[in-house]
Write a structure and sequence with these properties.
- The protein is of the alpha+beta class.
- The chain has three helices and nine strands, in the order ββββαββαβαββ.
- It has a seven-stranded mixed beta sheet with strand order 1-7-6-5-4-3-2.
- A hairpin with a 4-residue loop joins strand 5 and strand 6.
- Helix 1 runs antiparallel to helix 3.
- The radius of gyration is 19 Å and the shape is globular.
- The mean pLDDT is 87.
């Protein structure tokens, strides 16, 4: 079976979003171009890491170009997207490996999200080798979402992704663990339930 690549070059929309209530949210990356919509599920920490690394890479591009790259310092308001995910949200796959790159010729950020795959190996070295072979296999590798963004689109994506990550449950002022709407068993209160 050949590898399935969901390519968006360029997307009409590329956002991180969630489905569900805080504490039980499922995180998604969603790319849209015309009637095509691709949604892939991932962990909250993956969304945060992607947004942070994207901002860092964009900052490095600006620094190396001496400010001549087509990358804004902050997300422009005209490309800011606060709409919810397009419905229905149908998961194509769960993300395992992600990659970021900057195409200097085209002035584009390349985002790749590959499906999570389980590999059997007898040692860590064998596992790393098998994983590398699988990810480099253009014919039979895992499904992949590949998106090419302008600098402005990438900044807007990173800002929204961090906003989505931080929009969860508020932290307890004593222990910093998330507060649930029905209360919170705080270790700093010897297990007494603390209201939200």
């Amino acid at each position: 079976m050949s590898r399935q690549v969901f390519l968006y070059d360029p997307p009409d929309r590329f956002v991180a979003g969630t489905v569900g209530l805080p504490g039980r949210r499922t995180f998604f990356l969603q790319a849209t171009a015309g009637p095509r919509v691709t949604s892939v599920a991932l962990e909250k920490t993956q969304v945060a890491a992607l947004a942070e690394r994207m901002d860092e890479l964009l900052d490095e591009v600006v620094r190396r170009s001496g400010g001549n790259a087509a990358v804004p310092a902050v997300a422009p308001t005209e490309v800011t997207d606060s709409r919810p995910l397009d419905s229905p949200v149908e998961e194509e796959f769960r993300v395992g490996t992600m990659a970021l790159a900057w195409d200097g010729e085209e002035q584009r950020m390349i985002v790749e999200a590959q499906a999570l795959v389980e590999l059997d190996a007898e040692s860590e070295e064998d596992l790393a080798e098998a994983e590398e072979r699988l990810l480099q296999d253009e014919e039979n590798g895992p499904p992949m979402l590949r998106v090419r963004l302008t600098g402005a689109q990438a900044r807007a994506f990173a800002k929204r992704a961090l906003d989505v990550v931080n929009a969860g449950r508020p932290p307890c002022p004593l222990c910093s663990l998330p507060l649930d709407p029905e209360g919170h068993v705080c270790p700093r209160q010897n297990g007494y339930r603390r209201g939200a």
